[in-house]
């Protein structure tokens, strides 16, 4: 049983978020009779989940796994969730919200605007995010639980050589063209008009709260931090040093019950109310308003900065890697010198095919290897308007796999094999810790090597 593969099938729903949202929205248009088809402790699997995941694979153009395999992957993910509860493995709401914001940013980029999404699905952005948030949270917990189980797995160069030498020479895989690409991102500045508008709105809400309106109710109605808004803006207890410095500084300057002035952060503008402090922890609520990045962004400074950096890079005054580390506002890539990674494998080479981000594919299509592009308009994952310059670092032509050119890829296969073995051993033990049942109609599926319909 390839546990890594089955977990990956379960994670497909998040990695193919755009397709998944299409299928989700289509499912809302008609009323269907749903039913529970499996249970793992207090987690249930609905027939609609199975059908939506199967439809997502079909819509993505990938070969869909058998439905039995999809069901098994769903059960495995629910096992990871159940054991995460038992072992107290959790993820922070902020991490979930950032992931969801990023995926929604991709959808905005794909549809052109939030208005187009609302018109397509007949739901507000807030409602769509609320309905999909639990799914994102579950998948983040599954990923964290999987990392917890396989965190101690290590490999050596001799492991990789041994694996490569075990492959018959006439069976070595053919590797398609791959590229290394870096980028430097600069985000547009919120216009003064937009900033003044948001500050005024928050000051109005502050005034209403000072006059006796409930801060928590105002947060529920107006805050654009969806994770905390439904809790009245409640962020729970936070340890010092965990929140954004500007947010934490403002919160800790307050006395319990006091409200802050309006605070600006990378996420927008905040009105903070301190509830209490407890040793090295503090408890606060906030109301967050975000800028309209489509209408309220000035790209002048971003364009000037990138033009200047490109000039220094192309005249060898500054290396691209150093420029990225010191200037890129994409924190995910800046520490790696701006180099992009394949999110599914974590490797630095990107396949030069239809799986590549179209904006990257068409950008490098007219570039020479080693060149740096002029500033190009860009949308960050959380929906902000930005610009970037792209470095076409290298291209590897299609070839038969070799240990010299494909060591990174081969090592990934080896470590995945070891992780799969660790997961299989974990699952054998974990099955005795959770209750599992599958409906009789799936009796022909061999779920976790047990007869369907039997309790475990």
UniProtKB/TrEMBL annotation:
Coiled-coil residue spans: 118-145
Keyword line: Coiled coil, Isomerase, Rotamase, Signal
A Pfam family found in this protein is Rotamase
The PpiC domain sits at 176-276, 279-376
Task: Kindly list the GO molecular function terms attached to this UniProt entry.
Answer: peptidyl-prolyl cis-trans isomerase activity
Q: This protein is called what?
A: Peptidylprolyl isomerase
Q: Which organism is it from?
A: Dyadobacter psychrotolerans
Q: What is the lineage of its organism?
A: Bacteria, Pseudomonadati, Bacteroidota, Cytophagia, Cytophagales
């Amino acid at each position: 049983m390839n546990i890594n593969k089955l977990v990956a099938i379960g994670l497909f729903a998040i990695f193919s978020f755009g397709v998944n949202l299409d299928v989700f929205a289509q499912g809302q248009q008609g009323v269907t009779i749903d039913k529970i088809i499996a249970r793992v402790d207090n987690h249930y699997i609905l027939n609609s989940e199975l059908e939506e995941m199967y439809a997502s694979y079909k819509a993505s153009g990938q070969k869909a796994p058998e439905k039995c395999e999809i069901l098994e992957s769903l059960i495995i993910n629910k096992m990871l969730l159940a054991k995460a509860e038992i072992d107290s493995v959790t993820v922070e709401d902020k991490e979930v919200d950032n992931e969801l914001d990023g995926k929604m940013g991709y959808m905005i980029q794909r549809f052109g605007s939030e208005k187009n999404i609302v018109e397509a699905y007949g739901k507000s952005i807030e409602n769509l995010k609320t309905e999909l948030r639990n799914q994102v949270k579950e998948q983040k917990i599954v990923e964290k639980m999987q990392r917890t189980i396989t965190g101690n797995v290590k490999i050596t160069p001799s492991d990789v050589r041994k694996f490569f030498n075990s492959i018959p020479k006439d069976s070595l895989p053919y590797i398609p063209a791959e590229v290394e690409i870096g980028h430097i991102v600069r985000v547009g500045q919120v216009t003064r008009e937009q900033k003044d508008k948001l500050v005024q709105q928050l000051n109005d809400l502050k005034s209403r709260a000072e006059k006796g309106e409930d801060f928590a109710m105002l947060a529920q109605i107006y805050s654009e931090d969806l994770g905390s808004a439904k809790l009245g803006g409640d962020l729970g207890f936070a340890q010092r040093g965990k929140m954004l410095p500007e947010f934490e500084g403002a919160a800790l300057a307050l006395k319990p019950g006091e409200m802050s002035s309006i605070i600006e952060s990378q996420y927008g503008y905040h009105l903070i109310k301190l509830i209490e402090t407890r040793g090295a922890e503090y408890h606060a609520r906030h109301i967050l308003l975000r800028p309209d990045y489509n209408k309220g962004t000035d790209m002048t400074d971003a364009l000037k900065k990138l033009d200047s950096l490109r000039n220094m890079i192309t005249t060898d005054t500054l290396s691209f890697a150093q420029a990225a580390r010191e200037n890129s506002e994409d924190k995910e890539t800046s520490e790696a010198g701006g180099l992009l990674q394949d999110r599914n494998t974590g490797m630095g080479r990107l396949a030069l095919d239809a799986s590549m981000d179209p904006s990257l594919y068409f950008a490098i299509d007219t570039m020479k290897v080693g060149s740096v592009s002029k500033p190009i308009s860009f949308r960050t994952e959380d929906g902000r308007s930005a610009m970037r310059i792209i470095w076409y670092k290298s291209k590897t032509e299609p070839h038969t796999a070799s240990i010299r050119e494909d060591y990174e890829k081969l090592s990934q296969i080896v470590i995945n094999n070891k992780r799969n073995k660790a997961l299989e051993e974990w699952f054998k033990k974990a099955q005795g810790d959770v209750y599992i049942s599958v409906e009789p109609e799936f009796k022909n599926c061999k779920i976790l090597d047990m007869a369907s319909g039997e309790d475990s």
